[in-house]
Amino acid sequence: MATAPRPRTTTRDPEDLARRLSTWLDARLPGAKAADMTVPESNGMSSETLLFTVEHPEPPLGKCALRLAADPAAYTIFPVYDMPRQYRTMRLVAEHTDVPVPRVLWLEEDPGPLGAPFFVMERIEGRVPPDVMPYTYDGNWLHAASDAERARLEEASVRVLAHLHDQAPPETAAFLALPGEGSPLRRHVAAQRAYYAWVVDGLPRSPLIESAFDRLEEMRPRHEGDAVLNWGDARIGNIIYDGFEPAAVLDWEMAALAPREVDLGWTVYLHRFFQDLTVSFGQPGLPEFQRRDRVEAAYAGLTGHTPRDMDFYTLYAALRHAIVMLRVAYRQVHFGEAAVPADEKAADTLILHHDSLAAMVQGTYW
User: Fold this and answer.
1) What ranges make up the beta strands (E) of 269-333?
2) pLDDT digits (tens, 9 = 90+) for 288-315
3) Which residues lie closer than 8 Å to 16 by C-beta, 6 or more apart?
C-alpha cells in the first residue's frame, strides 16, 4: 500500500484546462484569467478539483476552486455527474444551515468550455485529514494531534451532521429525492443496486456484494424515521479544518434525501475502512478515534435522536463502498494497471475491505 502508485483518474492536461478556463473567465469578467492552477494532493477518485487564482484588473476575486465533472474518457466512477444538483445543494446548505460550505460563484452547464460541466467556488484555506497515506497512519497532522484535539475534531465533525440534518428543511431538498417507488431508504438501496449492475456490466460480478444485498433485505429496519438532507460522502476527509474546527464541508455529489443513519453509517464505516487497513499493515492506527459508540452518543446528545439499526446502516455503508472500490479496480483494468481475475469469485479480492464486509454479512464484525 505504501509504495503502490495512485490509480489514474484523468486524461486531462492541467495547462490546457488553465487556458480554456481563462477564455471562459474572460467572457464573464473581461480581462480576467486563471493563474497558478494546481491539482490538490487530496483530489478524489471521482469529480476533479482544480485550484487557481482569478487575476483581474479590478479588485480580484482571489483564490478559487473549480469542481469539474469527471473526465468522460477516464472510465468514470459514477455513471452521471449532475453538477447543477451539487451547486444547488451547496447553496441550500449555505442558506438554511450553519454548516460551513464554500460560497459558490458560477455554474457552467455547457460541457463545451472544459469538456464537462463545472462550477467555481471560493477556496477555503485549512488542512484536510489525508487519504493517501490515510490519517490513521503515523506521519500526518491528525495522527500527531493529542487525544483531546482529536476528540474536539470528532465532536465538531459529528456536529456538522447534526446541524445539517436538523436545520435543512426537507421540503427545500425535494430535488434530492431519488427516483422510484417506496420509502426514501428503499429508493436509496434500489439506486445502489442499479449502480452495481452498471459497474459489473460485461465484467465479473461480486458474490460478496450480492450476498451483502441479500443480508440487507433480511435486516431492513422496521421503522426508518423521517428522511433528511444527507451529505452523502460524510467523512472527515471531505472537511477542511481550521485547527480542529470545520471550516468547509466539501463533496456533495452523493447528497440525497434519506434517513439520518445513512450518513452516520457512512461516517462510522469510512473511518473503520482506514483503521482496519492500517491495522492489517501492522500499525495500531487510531483505535479510540471515531468509535461507533462515541459517534452515536455524540449525535444523540446533539439532536435528541438516538441512532437506530446501525448494524444495518454500517453494513450498507460497507456495501456501497465495496461497489465504488470494485469500479475503481475495473478502472485500473481499463488503464492497464491491473488484470481482470480469471476466476469470477476472485472479483471479491479486488475489494480492499472484502474481509470486513464478509464479517458484517456474517454478523461477526462488531
Assistant:
1) none
2) 999 999 999 999 999 999 999 999 999 9
3) none
Please state, in angstroms and rounded to a whole number, the distance separating the CA atoms of residues 365 and 362.
8
Please give the model's pTM, rounded to 2 decimal places.
0.94
Q: Is 233 a catalytic residue?
A: yes
Name 108's Cβ contacts closer than 8 Å, sequence gap at least 6.
Answer: 24, 83, 114, 117, 118, 119, 120
- Reported as a single tens digit per residue, the pLDDT across 211-224 is 999 999 999 999 99
Could you say which of 82, 98, 131, 233 is catalytic?
A: 233
Say what the pLDDT of residue 62 is: 86
d(CA 213, CA 179): 19
Cell numbers found for residue 1: 500500500
Cα–Cα distance between 69 and 249 in angstroms, integer? 18
DSSP string, 67-94: EE---TTS--SSS---HHHHHHHHHHHH
For residues 329-341, one letter each, b for 16 or more C-beta atoms within 10 angstroms of the residue's C-beta and e for the rest, the string is bbbbeeeeeeeeb
Nearby residues of 161 by Cβ (< 8 Å), 6 or more positions away:
231, 234, 260, 263, 264, 267, 299
Please state the φ and ψ torsions of residue 135, each to the nearest 5 degrees. Answer: -60, -15
- Residue 346 is classified by DSSP as G
Task: State how far the alpha carbon of 202 is from the alpha carbons of 79, 197, 198, 199, in Å.
Answer: 15, 10, 9, 9
Q: How confident is the model at residue 15 (pLDDT cuts 50, 70, 90)?
A: confident
Task: Of 216, 229, 210, 320, give the one whose Cα is nearest residue 268.
Answer: 320
Three-state SS at 325: helix
End-to-end C-alpha distance for the chain, whole angstroms? 25
